[in-house]
Design a protein that fits this description.
Four copies of one chain form a homotetramer. With 338 residues, chain A is α/β, with parallel strands linked by helices. Chain A is built from eleven helices and 14 strands. The radius of gyration of chain A is 23 Å and the shape is elongated.
């Protein structure tokens, strides 16, 4: 960590700063400049709070050199982490994992039928929302427990592991019992209480990126879960909020090489939520695989115009199958199965 | 609501769309263009889900004409809502309410002492964090219940109502019992489960704007709380996330006239979190009052460089008093007390 | 175009609005709602200025249904436009065009040498900056005319067409004479005077997307060039500005399917400027091809650490060759050559 | 400047880096960490190009400690710069300068008439567009030279200095002859060729902030003009681009205290373009003055609904006069005249 102090800081104040850090067991080197003095701190600076240091009136600026995360950091864990989701392995050089399913679970029949279509097309997990985060209190909020049980029935019928979003801590027992991959949605990426709670779960976590969160904050949210004891975290990029109006969000595919460089965890892409329009899902899916993503999560619905939510971004099953087929050829080029 | 359909949509499909909306009790007018046909829907369109309509493959675009909120909408509630926080009235032409206090509660003594300084300076409520949303799991997370009790002791000593952030539903009883104004933080603005829960509380809610949420989404989150039965919502702007690097966030003061035009609820400004730097707090406080804000929430700490969090943005008590004094003169110009 | 008027607008004012639009030859349909009245306009609304209509105090809102562009609009020009750059055809189902070269031209020897490496690796055009847009007035500003002549020498030696950025109208003659594909940089995307001038050139234009410009504004800038008479425009995405800090810009690959849906013009991707880091260039290049891009523009330098500008984002020639080889396999999957 | 190198960088490479910087006359201090080594450079680092240093494969990161600007930097020029615009002094503790006028000049009569209204209301300069940057090539592009002459006639009639936007270098002689304050628009803030040209002008420059430019880039654009010899630069904030949809742009008032802290130059605010809606102009104008701005630039039109451009954001003259009157009372509170 690098700390620069203001021009004219008295020597006594500089000494006080040095003593404080040395008292914390950190090594301190001072660089004397013409307009500023700069301190370099050596040691475990993840414990330091930048904002607190910045409160010193003689401090001009504070900059981290090393990353604020430890458990997620590739620097301290060179090998790729493979996350096992009820037998489906995600990450490293494993097959590209394609998760498909409806935005919202509407009934057991729907869940089972779409699960079969997803499986036949080559998908390896079933997604479906039972608890839905909706901007409007007047919109459909999901079937709740009934939806989770419908998903479980679909797993029963097909063998596909199931993925669903957990929105509050009071449903953790339900998810621990029934769900194979527990999704934390974009709007809860910094719901730190919830992160702490899922850190105690035995099930792997699918951590979506927040609408306007930096990659560093995203990794810090994974760090929360890992610090709680659950090291099975899969990142999921679903688009970020920008000024652009032709897409719902802006899909940021550069996160794929960056997450792989900075961390040892897997990352998958959700092109359906990112673009909000099924017409762009195929090209973004192929791009994601080409970029090195460990998987995709795609909305699939038999009859999108009648879907209870997000129909506009859902692929019909035959289109989903076509994406998987082309995706398989792309995966081969980058050395992966699908 | 205006729905445009694609060039070449068959007449039978147009008829099906018309019938569907008429079946929902909406009036439908069709505008026949050269490249598009457009439908106008008349009636209560808040029940419609834009994304579901957009899923129809013949639909090109969907645009709302009327706002998606009802209870918060000024159109249906012309008079200003005044929110009463344990006797302090906020909104309308009431005095500008200035809330002061530390970012984090550190001890009972600190809470009481700062409360007295805040009161003496002219502040009308005490703020203090007991549950802290922190990006890093390794950072100080707040004193929890102990902090809430310290705040209550400070209220006892000074008579100032207290404001604190609620981060999870399991603490609602505690907040219902002790806290006068329950803050929902920026990172939980779209934690819809929590919004539903606080919609059942009897205490007023201070709803901070999310880091990257539009004003419309913010009002929709107020609508969630109001739809639950709690109509005492105060908005709090605390800066949004942009590309700028010299401030922590970008304070968006234009929300003041907009919130007052679109809704009947009060709005206050938090210049401390918005800028992240105490040196900008005075000018942004005065600007907020000049823009018509109903209040301010400012971080105050006796010894910012030793604060347990966010010291860099805290004002010393004498500086806080100076802001209030100048603010009072500005308030007079815009026809308000302070 | 849809115009909504405020609640309580007098009938006489509604009539005046109707008459005004009918006087412009537009058809007007009125939809009478409970809280608003809405007008639908039918006819050529590209001539209307939304902001002027919004100035009417009885107007609540104005929304376009049809796009504001004509010449670039796929709706009126179904076939893909193929742009011919000195014999290299870009767009449609032509080969993916890979442009390589240094950020800045440093000497004739360098230009010729890198051109040969680019050609040997499978690149089809040479890029190189002679006029450099630099944030700091103290940074290297490019070799100017000398750099253009060096590029021309490299073309002479290799046969590769050359691409370079034009920053001001006073160099148009020079570019008309020497440069095969004239680049308009991100910072000049809305330099409308320059767009008008290049609209008169005979050479094709490579139009980079502005740092914070919407796709619609970008197409409108192409429309400027086309309205001037030059219909040979190639779009180039180079990343947009967001809150993210781990990349220089955020590469928005969803523009590929969108530009192809909305317009008939080719689009290429510049992963070097988008990411600002050579380590992410390969994965973003492969993703771009998989998404359907018509080409790539990649920075190549023999000795990046000694480059006069932007070395951090330059690939070494052998790495560039590897990208082309993998890219060729990806191109095949999406039905293209390279 | 602080440079961190990767774990495992060979000692010989570290030595080479040290020698290179020492060869440039910079002092180098090395801080040896466990995972990184860090160099601190002391001396004039404005000459260094961060991107070039980052190209060294052993370099992990480069961070500036000191600002990249010199002439605009308050550190080297403590006193406020007062810019004299044909006798109207802007900056320091001078009166708050209120500039008013139409978005576009429509005729000599209009220019003279509005100039008189602006003057009578208490405005001290007249603004008016003769060359208009328009997103659409089909929109009104301004009267050109005729508009400039109309402005000059209005100055003749009222004595008010005139402000107008220069869009291209070929009009510099015209602006040098007729215009008192030469505006560089947001879309040209990084048109570096134009900045160089106006750096040679004798007239003061009003430099608008770009749509998505950081404060640092904005100051660097001022630095371009100053490096060319023209030190009379006034900054003008006009809103930045964000995700928000209820305003055209997001007005960032925190720039006022920041520009005053980082530079010695004046700053004014344009609330009309920032909000795009006349209903928000008064509150943002008062907020701007309260924040310490040196002036305002407000659009004024007698008949906004008939304005040739941007009517929606224009104030009627009586409203403009009311803003000035309230603004004067606010100015008094912050120790300024108006």
């Amino acid at each position: 960590m690098i700390i620069s102090t203001k021009r004219g800081t008295p020597a006594a104040e500089l000494d006080k700063i040095i003593q404080e850090f040395e008292g914390m067991g950190l090594g301190v080197t001072i660089i004397r400049g013409t307009d500023y003095n700069v301190f370099g701190l050596v040691g475990d600076t993840t414990i330091l709070d930048e904002k607190r240091i910045r409160a010193n009136p003689y401090v001009e600026n504070v900059q981290r050199v090393s990353e604020p995360y430890k458990k997620a950091n590739r620097l301290f864990h060179e090998a790729d982490t493979i996350v096992d989701v009820a037998g489906v392995r995600v990450g490293g050089t494993e097959k590209v994992a394609v998760i498909g399913g409806p935005c919202s679970i509407e009934s057991k029949e729907q869940a089972v039928r779409i699960a079969q279509l997803v499986k036949n097309a080559g998908g390896c997990m079933l997604r479906g929302g039972a608890y839905k985060p909706r901007t409007s209190p007047y919109a459909f909020q999901g079937l709740g427990t009934e939806g989770i049980l419908d998903l479980a029935a679909a797993r029963e019928a097909t063998g596909l592991p199931i993925v669903s979003e957990l929105m509050s801590a009071d449903k953790i027992d339900e998810f621990e019992q029934y769900v194979d991959l527990v999704q934390i949605g974009a709007r809860n990426m910094q719901n730190f209480q919830l992160l702490k709670e899922v850190g105690k779960m035995s099930k792997p976590i699918l951590l979506k990126r927040g609408l306007a969160n930096t990659i560093e904050e995203w990794i810090m949210s994974a760090e929360y879960i890992m610090a709680g004891g659950n090291e099975n975290v899969i990142f999921c990029e679903r688009g970020i909020r920008t000024f652009e109006k032709y897409t719902r969000n802006t899909l940021d595919l550069s996160v794929v090489p960056i997450i792989k460089q900075k961390t040892h965890l897997p990352i998958i892409i959700d092109p359906s939520h990112a673009t909000g329009d099924w017409r762009y899902v195929e090209s973004m899916s192929l791009a994601a695989i080409a970029s090195g993503a460990d998987g995709l999560m795609i909305e699939v619905h038999e009859n999108p115009e009648a879907a209870w939510s997000d129909g506009a971004q859902s692929l019909k099953p035959e289109k989903f199958a076509a994406v998987i087929e082309k995706g398989r050829a792309i995966a081969r080029v980058v050395g992966r199965g699908l």
